[in-house]
Design goal:
With 314 residues, the protein is α+β, with helices and mostly antiparallel strands. The protein folds into 2 domains: 166 residues, no CATH class; 133 residues, no CATH class. Helix content is 39%, strand content 25%. A hairpin with a 3-residue loop joins strand 9 and strand 10. Helix 4 packs across helix 5, helix 6 runs antiparallel to helix 7 and helix 6 runs antiparallel to helix 8. It is elongated and about 60 Å long.
């Protein structure tokens, strides 16, 4: 399945025209309805009626289907930032819809920011773990119908953007490919490090003699192992210049048929979905092609997707 990067067209920079409140956000992140006490009047508490959530998350694959075509789209951190700025430059902060269909009144974006530091960001106060570069918004809801019949009842659970973007049709130059692939893998490394730290902290709290085990699977097809082995061979021919250490470790793991955890399977699917555009070039000396094989190639993507779906249905 193809993955397409969407960018802002420099000649016709429209960007995001409105933010819709929806039941199923495409970015799979719910908003938080802030109901903290704002002030008191005659001992009557007033609600803030503010929704806070992610409008756009960078480098997150979003599934799309157009007639018979299925694909993923994603936005880079730079595009997310530009889109957030253009949203206000064009004066669209009072434009909103319900489920991308009904125009709404009485909803306004009153706060907007980009997550720059996960530990110090406001989202931390509300137990929201957002990636760096995420565009967060807070929306004031003065519309009684929307607040009482949709927000308070849980019919709407997050934000979804409406706007115009262009496909990034041209393939980047080799250096850009390598840099972007490295960036994707560095994100995987950061995630993996966070998981390891979490396990270490958890182990310290476990009483002596007790052990924890992570559910893992090794039933991926031989083609996944062969792809990883092929990637290692090709990378050796170019002096191992391709992929970060994370990619090389993942290849060794898959080539040897070792079990991988559920979280690793999810990260495999995430990486392979985003990096597929660089693999399709098909040149055996190209880092995009080699890195994709190191992660198990297309067969690993298909296996990971199927495995995730089967686990969700259990």
């Amino acid at each position: 399945m193809n993955i397409v990067e969407l960018i802002l067209d420099e000649e016709d920079a429209i960007g995001i025209e409105a933010i819709s409140v929806v039941e199923s956000p495409a970015i799979e992140e719910d908003f938080i309805a802030l109901k903290n006490q704002e002030f008191k009047l005659a001992e009557v508490d007033k609600e803030k009626r503010i929704l806070m959530g992610a409008a756009l998350i960078p480098n997150k694959p979003i599934y799309r289907r157009n007639e018979d075509n299925e694909y993923y789209i994603y936005f880079s951190r730079d595009t997310v930032r530009k889109a957030s700025e253009l949203f206000f430059i064009n004066g669209n902060q009072n434009k909103s819809t319900l489920e991308h269909q009904m125009p709404l009144t009485g909803l306004s974006v009153v706060e907007s920011w980009i997550v720059e530091d996960k530990d110090k960001d406001k989202t931390k106060m509300y137990d929201m773990d957002m990636p760096l570069g995420t565009w967060m918004v807070s929306m004031k809801v003065l519309n009684d119908d929307v607040w009482n019949n949709y927000v308070k009842t849980g019919k709407v659970k997050g934000f979804s953007i409406e706007g115009y973007f262009a496909d990034k049709a041209e393939r980047p130059k080799d250096k850009t490919i390598k840099d972007e692939l490295a960036q994707i893998e560095e994100q995987e490394a950061e995630y993996l490090l966070g998981q390891i730290k979490g396990i270490i902290k958890k182990d310290k709290r476990i009483k002596s003699g007790q052990r924890t085990e992570m559910e893992s699977y090794s039933d991926y097809p031989d083609s996944v192992k062969n792809n990883a082995k092929r990637g290692l061979e090709l990378n050796e021919k170019v002096n191992n210049k391709c992929a970060t250490q994370v990619g090389k470790v993942r290849a060794q793991q898959l080539a040897q048929g070792k079990p991988v955890s559920v979280e690793t399977i999810k990260r495999m699917f995430s990486y392979l979905s985003r990096a597929e555009v660089y693999y399709e070039k098909g040149e055996t000396t190209d880092c995009g092609y080699i890195s994709y094989l190191l992660w198990g190639g297309k067969s690993a993507k298909s296996w990971a997707e199927a495995k995730i779906k089967s686990l969700e249905n259990e």
